[in-house]
Amino acid sequence: MSAPRLEVDLEKIRHNASALVSKLGGHGISVTGVTKACLGEPRVAKTLLAAGVKGLGDSRIENIEAMRRAGIAAPMTLIRSPMPSQAARVVAHADISFNTELDVIAALSSAARRAGKRHGVVLMVEMGDLREGIMPGDLQDTVRAALRFPNIDLKGIGTNLACQSGVSPDTRNMSELSRLADLLDADFGLVTRVVSGGNSSNLKWALSGEKAGRVNDLRLGESILLGLDPLDRLPIEGLYTDAISLVAEVIETKTKPFRPWGTIAQAAFGGTPLSANDGSASRTILALGRQDIDPLGLTAEPGIRVLGASSDHLVVDAGTCHVTAGSEMTFQLNYSALLRAMTSPFVTKTYSLPAGQGAFESRRAPGPRSSEEPHQWH
């Protein structure tokens, strides 16, 4: 079996998605399944749809095109504002796109008119996280202008939080989003059929018992794939946290001192990491590096500690674990490490099939996991 590799358990992803669809459905909120961390992998997309998500969202038109080529006809939303240079591709393959600039909507309008199609637009509103978004005071004028574009259907509004500045979704900002939706409908008629409240970081708010107001959609990726809450990276009860694992192969294992010696300058990626410990330890090197993963985003098996990484080497303290060259270690990943591993052409991706449908031949026999059972809902 090739290494390094990601092992993706589609049945656990299905379980996580289904659990969140059910929980949020009880609050009147539907789920858009976000596929960007898996590069629009059709097997993941089909698993999300089978679990009940209402549609798929991705930040790259290339991923949406890949899913269309795979025959996926579900509603698809481009959740990053389109580049004007890609307007024709967006109109051809995405049903809806998130937008903040009238110049971009103008490009989409022209492309849709040439293609004889209509394209849906959701206007993103800035609610404090300072990434993309129209300032609330400018929203009415933007809506008024957007409604004039031919071949454009205004579907609603949305926002994004906790990505750029860590601003948490809460009653205050979600109520403000609902208020803006009401204001637009009062001024322009029913133009906010979609009120997309945010991403996986909205789950605490959405499931807290607070009224959802006008929010009727969340875009979920990290919570489904990793079973973690982005606000604190703690496990979400009822979900698997090991649906995706990373397996790497050992290429060296030796006992070496804790401290480096010689004249110390900057390391390959900056900094001068020095150990405060004396003595020696079992230092193990795996064929995996920063070109493939974010080393800070890896959680090793019990008894193993990640020490650092260069471009192509991951160094761990194996402790008392007996490892030899050619043996494998399994890691769990956070979202940053997952994104980089999925993007790396040097990391093989393997997929199990949902229960009752067999498995791909490339699927490795299950190894140690951080959590073989889902966390329980209180």
Which CATH top level class of the largest domain fits? Alpha Beta
CATH fold topology of the largest domain = TIM Barrel
- Low confidence ranges: 361-372
- The total count of strands amounts to 18
What is the total number of structural domains?
Answer: 2
**Beta-sheet strand percentage?**
15-25%
Query: What distance lies between the first and last C-alpha atoms, to the nearest angstrom?
Result: 39 Å
Largest sheet: 8 strands, mixed
Number of helices: 10
H/E element order: EHEHEHEHEHEHEHEHEHEEEEEEEEHE
Sheet/helix structural class: alpha/beta
Percent helix range: 25-40%
| Overall spatial form | elongated
- Write down the Rg: 23 Å
Q: Write the CATH homologous superfamily of the largest domain.
A: Alanine racemase
What is the CATH architecture descriptor of the largest domain?
Alpha-Beta Barrel
Average pLDDT figure = 92
Cofactor: pyridoxal 5'-phosphate
GO molecular function, one term: alanine racemase activity
Pfam families: Ala_racemase_N
InterPro entries: Ala_racemase (IPR000821), Ala_racemase_N (IPR001608), PLP-binding_barrel (IPR029066)
